[in-house]
Amino acid sequence: METCYLCGSIDDLTRDHIPPKNLFPSPKPSNLITVWCCRKCNERYSLIDESFRIFTSSVINRSKTGESVWNKKVMQSSFVRSPKLKSATIKSLVPIEEEINGIKVKATGITYPIKKTKSFLVRLTKGFTRHFNPEIDLAGAKFKVYHITPNQQIVDMLHQKFFYVEKGDGVFRMWRMFVKDNVPESVWVYVFYDGLMFMIKVN
Ligand SMILES: [Zn+2]
Question: So which domain of life are we looking at (predicted)?
């Protein structure tokens, strides 16, 4: 029987996109992953999805696609629809110094709550597990979230040892490695718009 991948409910099921479809510019890729999710859980994540898109598409070293999502879907859509979201984002701005290709760049960054980031990434991990390894039961699993500064060395290592999935051009990359068969213990790495990288350890 199909169940919601987040709460286990069998009622009012709908398809949830993993990663969320709002991260992708139109036309969306046709190979996006969907899993069964109850309407309640699905709706609970819609605001988190929107604010996560603002956060990930705002980073200075984002891909071209990330830049276009920021311009078209954040500036011309989210911020127009919700002035509240816009003012909250402006309030969270902080000056930052980043090093891109060895050059120091001064810019402004959005501060984003770690709790929301974790909630988003744990949900993503649960969705992928349901899709790729439905036999694994994540009830009771613990999730640790780390922010990683992306570099070529890490990416090369991941490509050698991890299972790789890419969705959309410059939108989303994912690597995962299970430590053993049929147990939750695993490592996941996610990259959004080629700019933000996170690692999730599950045990
Ligand atoms: Zn649910």
Answer: Bacteria
Neighbours of ion ligand 1 (CB under 5 A): 4, 6-7, 9, 38, 41
Is residue 141 domain-resident? yes
Residue 130 lies in a domain: yes
Token pair in block for residue 47: 């605001």
For 113, phi and psi rounded to 5 degrees?
-65, 135
Nearest 10 degrees: Cα torsion 8, 9, 12, 18: -10
Q: What is the CA(13)–ligand 1 centre distance, in A? A: 8
Distance 53 CA to ligand 1 centre (A): 22
Answer whether residue 131 is part of any domain: yes
**Is the N-terminal amide bond of 27 cis, ω within 30° of 0?**
yes
Residue 176 domain boundaries:
114-202
Distance CA 30, CA 143 (A): 30
Q: What is the CATH number of the domain that holds 178?
A: 3.30.160
Token representation of residue 12: 């009012």
Residue 12, in any domain of the structure: no
Q: How many domains does the chain have?
A: 1
